[in-house]
Amino acid sequence: MADLLCYPHPLVTSNVLYVRDVPFRVKWDNLVTTFKACGPVSQLEVTTTKGTSKKNRCRTWAVCFQDIAHAELAFATLRGTSIKDLPLALPCPLTLFHSAHPSESDASSASWALPQYVVGVKLQALAETNIFSLFSIFRRAGPLVSLRLDVDIGRDAPVCVVRYWSLDHADAAAPGVTAALRERFQLSGIVSLKSYDPCTILITNLDSGLEANDIHGLFNKFGTIIE
After folding, report:
1. Which residue, 71, 101, 131, sits at the end of a domain?
2. What would the 3-class secondary structure string for the chain be?
């Protein structure tokens, strides 16, 4: 993908990613199943984090993808999801990193663009598409923080949500990505990307007698209200 050369990822610079804090009950086959949509993977190395007992010891797996594009795909679509084929009562999040020893600054979200959701393409059509093909369409505009299907953002139905590392890339995505989506799904209607703030909620059907202080009183117990 030429886009990887034009707009390199700020973190993923090789085809190797690291799965950290993996309990001993998670086997390599679980990771292979989890990464299945991102192409074949191979195991490079395993390191063990010492604990007081085998029960709370964890491992770090170095996972090699077929190329850097598929490593980026995994980083954008799987980070924070659950490792597959584990008992429902014992879920385990996928703590995926670009380095065996990432720094705190690597995770900073201060400069990320607001997430955008796709309007005009049915979620079922997106879900049935090869995830790498879909990723490639969005990646043309720049590297992705995340790409998720079936996200509940409070609309009538779940949506596809994409987030870019750079606001410039998010702005540039609108014309090129929407045109590519229209072509890919042979659509004649309007296709667009709309930004939303995941820290903002919309409240409807409020009593006309409620004041701003009443709203603050209801919600400030859950955290700081900016405005």
Report:
1. 101
2. CHHHHHCCCCCCCCCEEEEEEEECCCCHHHHHHHCHHHCCEEEEEEEEECCCCHHHCEEEEEEEECCHHHHHHHHHHCCCCECCCCCCCCCCECEEECCCCCCHHHHCCCCCCCCEEEECCCHHHHHCCCHHHHHHHHHCCCCEEEEEEEECCCCCCCEEEEEECCHHHHHHHHHHHHHHHHHHHCCCCCCEEEECCCCCCCCCCCCCCCCHHHHHHHHHHHCCCCC
pLDDT tens-place string over residues 137-182: 999 999 999 999 999 888 888 999 999 999 899 998 888 999 999 9
Q: What is the CATH number of the domain that holds 78?
A: 3.30.70.330
Query: Domain check: are 81 and 8 in the same one?
Result: yes
Is the pTM value of this prediction over 0.70? yes
